[in-house]
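Quick one - inputs below.
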Amino acid sequence: MNLRRISRGAAAWFEERLGLNAVMELLKRKEVPQNKDTIWTYTGSLILLFFGIQVVTGIMLAFYYKPTLELANKSIGRIMTEVPLGWIIRSVHFWSATFMIAIAFIHLLSIWIIKSYRKPRELTWMSGVFLLVFTLAFGFTGYLLPWDDLSLAATKVGTDIPRSIPLVGVWVTKFLRGGDDISGDTLSRFFSFHISILPLCLLAVLCFHIYLIQKQGMSLPLGAQERVDKKRALPFWPNFVFREAIVWLIFSGVLITMAVLLPPSLSKAADLMAPAPEGIKPEWYFLFLFQTLKIFPPKILFVNGDTVAVLVIFAGVILFFCLPLIDNKPEQRKGKFITFAAYLFILYAVAMSVWSLLS
Amino acid sequence: MCVFLTVEFFLPVLSFAQQAAPPAKAPEIQAQAQSEKIVAAPQNIKEASRIYVFLGWMWVSIAVLIYFLRLKIKEVDRLHEIKFFLPDKK
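Output:
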């Protein structure tokens, strides 16, 4: 039997039923502009790479993990000590989460600075903000699952923060915890969020986000639209894909190396009755928010300081979400100020994170 | 060549995955382990050396793959340029 004939026959059989040639033609026609900002286009696909790694390693961990008070910590201990290479799988999952969140922040900040959210890409930005929120929620819910002292204390602090929101705060905290206090219900609830609700929500928004990018094409830098140099646009397939493959290989190598050389340890099982450890801090991606909450005084004009802090942060998120609508004339003075605000935000986040680490 | 290198990349991982699980520890050791911090590490010197050899092998494979990808990128970029500068075909 001629192997080439068999493979052509199989391809024709699938093409008749799936019609995937249209997708391949779209990929061949798709172009990526080449300019000083092209390097930032690699961040989007990198987030996808790390999300894929999270899904695969997460499924492997879920084979052994047990989301109950008595067995959560023990099952992770078993993964690390008894399951062959279980400690590496857990380490890859841990580091991939860190990389994914870091690159999500870089992706979003780069879009902010180069203003890729300009018309008609406002919805792409807004869906991207949702994706960032879901990614942070993944980190928050996953942090509790080892059920050790640190994760319990961090979750107590994290789920207590919404309590300060007027009217709905107490309800939100009860919803997150599955009751007034952290318990076994909180663990199973966070596990459900982590492995089913959040992946479904993220996948739905991700499909919408990718659809918009394919429909509208890649954006050009501000001021480049009138003098677009068509010679400098690269075909997505195969020119850009081969370049992305190099980036993926390097980052995968760095991920596996970090996972092997710096694996996370596991503390003893959490004790619900024990007080929180001294100097408790959240994961690095929440440090700047945590420190922001700490710098507010207990009372501001007869209003609870925590309430003001939460409302200020919430207002900041809303502004962030509506950025393309606010920055509707990016080439004017307002647009330049918003770009400057992006650099200020980076400086603020780094400074607050370092302050939190050192305090 | 790329297929060969990619398959070879995964073979050590598969062989690691087929490693037999160590026998269950005695209850006293398990209880002690559960009360202390568990540090993630290779379980014995053999596993440690296999993992470090795999890391080295992985980076060599990545370097080789990147070399071939760069050759392919030069080739497809050149093809793209030539097609652009050619007059329109009838």
